[in-house]
């Protein structure tokens, strides 16, 4: 992009995708800046994958406009494909090809040849710990190994913008942490990233997120800013009969939501209540609680206040 738009990698306005009358994405507006990890957070079926497929040019919007890296999508999708990387939700490489054969095949698709091809394949194999797995069939690899191969092929052609659709849903926690460190290395090297996830801890690692529900954007911004602006304070209660306390609190004035986490009940109290801990202590339902204290909000609290019952 040129001029004032040089820092914008994705701009979408009024994006709609309908399937037989069902709006999978419903009026989505997005502005994603260069050099960040931008996350779509939401449950299965909220429109995350559909939105991403429109941004990559794989799906044609029913309504609205999309511009990615200054190109109009889907009109310029063929040009765009050489400038973006896309890692699908399910492993989409060839199980009956080796690691090296998969990388060579993808290099051909992206037009890499000769010395450049050899150099890039060597670089990604080293970076993503695939050097010793070159002759391993992709179908015989573990979840973490497949994930590293999928990322290696997605960045082989050094894309400016990388799309990752629930990239860690099939790997263990250690592989997930390691994968996210690799994403920050890519951002450090100048790549912008759009990622979908339903993991709250992953979303909290994004520079900015959009919370989606039923195809609509419910909130958008930096996780910390969303926590500060969510319109609720968080109080945790310890003590006996937490299930009874929760049942009585739900639906009462000033209470937005309540959920049990282990031996504590986490209660979202509307922001206009000046001292939320004292407010709960004064309620007869909490009589006998051993601890009632205000705590810092997290992204799950933001999600609850922005969607479902929290929006009532």
Task: Characterise the protein shown here.
The protein has 312 residues and is α/β, with parallel strands linked by helices. It folds into 2 domains: 3-222, P-loop containing nucleotide triphosphate hydrolases (Rossmann fold, 3-Layer(aba) Sandwich), CATH 3.40.50; 231-296, Alpha-Beta Plaits (2-Layer Sandwich), CATH 3.30.70.100. The chain is built from 11 helices and 14 strands. The protein has helices spanning 48-55, 77-80, 99-109, 114-127, 143-154, 173-188, 200-203, 223-228, 242-249, 276-281, 299-306, and strands spanning 8-19, 22-33, 37-41, 63-68, 71-73, 84-87, 161-165, 192-197, 208-213, 216-221, 232-238, 255-261, 264-270, 291-295. It has a 6-stranded mixed sheet with strand order 6-7-8-3-9-10, with helices on both faces. The longest helix has 16 residues, at 173-188. It starts with 7 loop residues before the first strand and ends in a 6-residue tail after the last helix. Residues 10-239 form the ABC transporter domain. Belongs to the ABC transporter superfamily. This is ABC transporter ATP-binding protein. It comes from Roseibium sediminicola.
Give the structure's gist in a few sentences:
The protein is an alpha/beta fold and 312 residues long. The protein has helices spanning 48-55, 77-80, 99-109, 114-127, 143-154, 173-188, 200-203, 223-228, 242-249, 276-281, 299-306, and strands spanning 8-19, 22-33, 37-41, 63-68, 71-73, 84-87, 161-165, 192-197, 208-213, 216-221, 232-238, 255-261, 264-270, 291-295. The protein contains 11 helices and 14 strands.
